[in-house]
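Worked example

This section walks through a single chain of length 174. The input is the sequence exactly as stored; nothing has been trimmed or padded.
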Amino acid sequence: MRDAVPVLDETTGRLPSFDEYVAARGRALWRSAWLLTGDRHRAEDLVQTALLKCWRRWDRIADAEAVEAYVRRTMLTTYTDWWRRRWNGELPTSELPEPAPAESTDPGLRQDVLAALARLPRGQRAVVVLRYFDDLTEAQTAAALGIGVGTVKSQTSRALRSLRASGLLEESDD
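Given that input, the structure is written out below as tokens.
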């Protein structure tokens, strides 16, 4: 289930500030980026780059309902641009970043999901992440990706067929 998205402040009638939005949605955005990229560090880079692009234009967003769609679309466009350019913007450093907090889910299952998602074509992966991990409707997914609802349905069908056939996500009797 998606985290609550801050919309118009009922008392002041204003859009959320950039800081408020990032505080409320940052973790969910990172999760989506991680599922798209399959790599913790690339996911962090993707979220930071997308949020920087949004921050530069934050004052131009006129509709509170458009905030989530604008940020998500920026992140997906950035992701698409990266794999088209084969971008590798990471630079070696002598200081290691702080480790991410441990997730409470089974690490084996998490690795299996990541491996299965990595085998999908990028378009199918994006549809699966938006539909099933970000809990968007078919119409919202289509709008976020700039494709038709029929394409979302066909990509979802193909992706689920591939995931079932991968053998990585078989149910256990535990």
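What to look for: The mean pLDDT is 80.
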